[in-house]
Write a structure and sequence with these properties.
Layout: E1 5-9, H1 26-34, E2 39-42, H2 54-71, E3 76-80, H3 86-99, E4 103-106, H4 116-125, E5 133-137, H5 147-154, E6 159-164, H6 169-181, E7 186-189, H7 195-201, E8 205-206, H8 215-226, H9 230-243, H10 253-262, H11 279-290
Parallel strand pairs: 1-2, 1-8, 2-3, 3-4, 4-5, 5-6, 6-7, 7-8
Helix pairs in contact: 2-3, 4-5, 5-6, 8-9, 10-11
Length: 302
């Protein structure tokens, strides 16, 4: 199941050309694998996916998927192909499939106000994808799923699961209801502050952006939960919430990439109009990360 366990929504290394370039983050991918991560999602929110031109992603995806296959034989790669329109999403899905991914993640079409019928047709059209589709519910950036669109998508055999980043327990419950009727339907939760609650409710996995910085903590949370050690799982969740304070320095991808750059793993470059951190923010980041050192990527990964 592509969405079980921990999926890291990976950042996208950017080279001197300003385009996605695996060479700018080889150490990062290696450190994720060394930490025990086996599943990644490329070109999601943390991967700045919508900011990268479709014409530029094909070569990067081929390199990144190939590298992950080498680092983690039998590992999983999901590629976010969400875009403003259906045709653009399908083209990105085609490139992802050609690169050898295991599944694509697809949000409802963004920018315009789309009604339930538009959203359902968008997912019906995704049957053309050569790999399974993971519904990507991210209402912060795309139209939200309704009860009707969830029910309709649930009947589409090519939709194999959902990544729910809504943080809405009622919406998550509706996706879990789909799973009860379709045992092969996977549910992953992306709201980092509620991961343990989601696992307890019955999700198959989590997709936390903070796992870019602390992959072992995310793995520990899932392992402790499955082992029935809820005290240890709760402590891992608490550490995640504390580490989320990093976004108080600068929200989003720039602070994640700056953290990785400090550890020598990935270039700090972000896609415009995003900006890299200034000197004051970098100083604050160094101070903030000091207390989390044992948990951070690369700290004890050989």
């Amino acid at each position: 199941m592509p969405v079980s366990g921990v999926i890291v929504p990976a950042v996208t290394p950017i080279g001197e050309s300003g385009r996605p370039d695996l060479e700018a983050g080889l150490g990062y991918f290696g450190a994720l694998a060394a930490a025990g991560i086996t599943k990644i999602m490329l070109l999601g929110t943390n991967g700045e996916g919508p900011l990268h031109q479709t014409a530029e992603i094909g070569a990067f995806l081929a390199d990144a998927v190939g590298r992950w296959r080498w680092l983690v034989p039998g590992g999983t790669v999901v590629v976010n192909v969400s875009a403003a329109g259906t045709r653009e999403s399908l083209r990105r899905a085609e490139l992802a499939a050609e690169a050898g991914c295991d599944a694509v993640a697809l949000s409802p079409p963004c920018y315009f106000h789309h009604d339930e019928h538009d959203i359902v047709e968008h997912y019906r059209a995704s049957r053309a994808a050569a790999v399974p589709v993971i519904a990507y519910n991210i209402p912060r950036y795309a139209p939200p799923f309704s009860a009707g669109s969830i029910a309709a998508v649930a009947d589409m055999e090519h939709v194999a699961g959902v990544k729910d980043s809504s943080g809405d327990s009622d919406i998550l419950r509706q996706w879990l209801d789909v799973k009860r009727h379709r045992p092969d339907f996977g549910v992953s939760q992306g709201a980092e502050g509620k991961m343990l609650d989601a696992l307890s409710a019955g999700t198959d996995g989590i997709t936390p952006g903070i796992a870019n910085l602390a992959p072992r903590v995310a793995l520990e949370l899932v392992a402790a939960h499955h082992a029935g050690d809820q005290e240890r799982a709760a402590l891992a969740q608490k550490r995640v919430v504390s580490l989320l304070g990093v976004h108080g320095i600068r929200a989003g991808v720039p602070v994640v990439k700056a953290s990785l750059a400090m550890r020598g793993l990935c270039a700090p470059t972000v896609a415009p109009p995003l900006r890299t951190l200034d000197d004051g923010e970098l100083a604050a980041l160094r101070e903030f990360l000091t207390e989390f050192e044992p948990d951070l990527i690369g700290a004890a990964d050989g």
